[in-house]
Amino acid sequence: MSRRTITGLGLVAAGGVGYYLYQAGGDPKVARKEVEHDMTSATSRAKGEKVSAESAKKQGEEWAARAGSKIDSTIDDARSKVHEADSLITRKAGQAESKLDQLKHDSAASFDRTRKEAENKIEEFDNKVEKKTSEAKGGISSWLGFGK
Questions:
Q1: Residues ≥6 apart with Cβ < 8 Å to 133
Q2: Are the C-beta atoms of residues 65 and 33 closer than 8 Å to each other?
Q3: Which of 23, 70, 76, 86 has its CA 20 to 30 A from that of 48?
Q4: Residue 123's Cα: distance from chain center in Å?
Q5: How far apart are CA 85 and CA 91, in angstroms?
Q6: Contact 31, 21 (CB under 8 A)
Q7: 116-134: burial string, b at 16+ Cβ within 10 Å, e else
Q8: Where are the extended beta strands (E) located within the chain?
Q9: Tens place of pLDDT for every residue, the chain, 148 residues?
Q10: Predicted TM-score of the model (pTM)
Q11: Helices 28-47, 53-144: crossing angle, 10 deg rounding
Q12: Left (φ > 0), alpha (ψ -120 to 50) or beta: where does 25 sit?
């Protein structure tokens, strides 16, 4: 056999394996049953035999295995999506909680600053009133001759 013939046969074999794996959804067990069924069908057709009960049973098993594989795949996909959604919700809840804590802290700090500013203004006003009151007392006392 020439090198080209061997390469061609290898490519055909790889293509056949790929085809059966693809048809089985990547499950090698299902692919193997499908190959066995196809080989049995081809052999019986070559011999001119009709489909037997055994062949029908094998095909039923193959379809059941394929359906089971697809159901398992769908369940796994659903579980992974639920897990992703759960982790996203947990992450977003944590972010919201940290933002709420930051807002509380910022609000408290702003309130404290505003309160201190108000207290300082009140203190300034009180000092100014006391100073003006003492000046006014001194002025009235001097008019009446009691003081300075």
A1: none
A2: yes
A3: 23
A4: 56
A5: 10
A6: yes
A7: eeeeeeeeeeeeeeeeeee
A8: none
A9: 788 888 887 877 788 777 777 777 777 777 777 777 777 777 776 666 565 677 677 777 878 887 878 888 889 899 999 999 999 999 999 999 999 999 999 999 999 999 999 999 999 999 999 988 888 777 666 666 665 5
A10: 0.39
A11: 160
A12: left
Please give the structure tokens belonging to residue 44: 């019986």
Tokens of 64: 């059941």
Q: Do residues 26 and 12 make contact, with C-beta atoms less than 8 angstroms apart?
A: no
31 C-beta neighbours (distance < 10 Å), count: 23
Residue 48 zone, left/alpha/beta (φ > 0; ψ -120 to 50; rest): left
User: Would you say 62 and 37 are in contact if contact means Cβ atoms under 8 Å apart?
Assistant: yes
Instruction: Supply 145's token pair.
Output: 């001759």
Closest CA to 29 of 61, 53, 55: 61
Cα–Cα distance, 41 to 58 (Å, whole number): 10
